[in-house]
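Journal club side-thread
Mid-discussion, someone asked how the predicted structure for our own chain would compare to the paper's figures. Pasting it here so we can look after the session.
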Amino acid sequence: MHVDEIWKSTKGEGIKVAVIDSGVNDSVPSLRGQILSGRDFTGVKGDEKDDYTGHGTTMAELIAGTGRGGGLQGLAPEAKIIPYRVADTEMQNNNKVNAFDIRQAIRAAADSDAQIISMSWGSEYYSHDVRDAIEYAQAKGKLFFAAVGNSGDKGNAESYPGAYPEAVAVGATTSEGRVAKFSQHGDKVDISAPGADLLGWCDETFTRYCKIQGTSGATALASATAALIWSKHPEWTGNQVLRVMFESAGRGENWEPGTVSRQVGHGVVRPNAHITRGLGKPGDPDVSPDTGKRVGGKPGSASKSPTPGTSKQAPDAAPSGDNPALAGSASGKADDSGGTNSAYLIGGAIAATAVLAGAGALVARRRRQA
């Protein structure tokens, strides 16, 4: 991605990214001073800075890690992270948790001063409430990035929130520059980013890094790309940032103009293509390049002094330029950082009426880290 060239212009200064995940450990060396106050929505002991799997901390480092202490250096190392902790399967199975954590976290992020919301999680269950929360965030001018999912080679079932039209659904490419076999495909894919052969924390002990792959990491890198572009153009709206991301993305030589790929959406993120070469035009500040609707035209209000707190389908061919990706497909598997399923577990008074079915069986809605 030619980061040395990019970082001469911007490192994401002034941009805040809300990370909705398992929490973010602010004591790891590369994230010291990078994490702002967020909120825990699990209802379980701990707070948003208690990461119970290591997944959320990995995503935060891929976005804004400084590299200090031998840690990961993120793509936008001067951006700041606002963590929102939500529950996964194991936490739900072992604890009484908040059943509405996802939608509440999205709304809280929308009400915060984060310009970007990054969510590397997914479920096969559609939720009107969660979609409404994403629409709320979009109306407030936020960019909401979500993982497209890791079952591209195992059924390719819809994964939400990535499959909601209002979310920017991110697919993954391999280190060889090919479409990752695990990356889900279809009309829902909006853009792609590297998602294989990355590094991340092996588990919640934070003792070592492991090789990971999945659309989780790709989502973090797409969010970081938006942070870089928005930092360079703080007067732009989210619509303009996203349009430039789409127009400057890496595409195949035989890619027909105006078309979108079912494998990689508008192409593979190339922040350098815009930041140092000027590719991509911001266009109408009030129209989403994703949905075509007039929404979310409020400027991102990025500050140089951060404070707390429907398309014709194209062939999938090798793109030219900075990212020689998509020359076919390569094998992959679910994210090594934790591809566990999770279930919405309703506690309190609601449990008696909403959770039980048949002979007292729990109605499970699986949620997984992508």
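Post-session note: The chain is about 20% helix and 15% strand.
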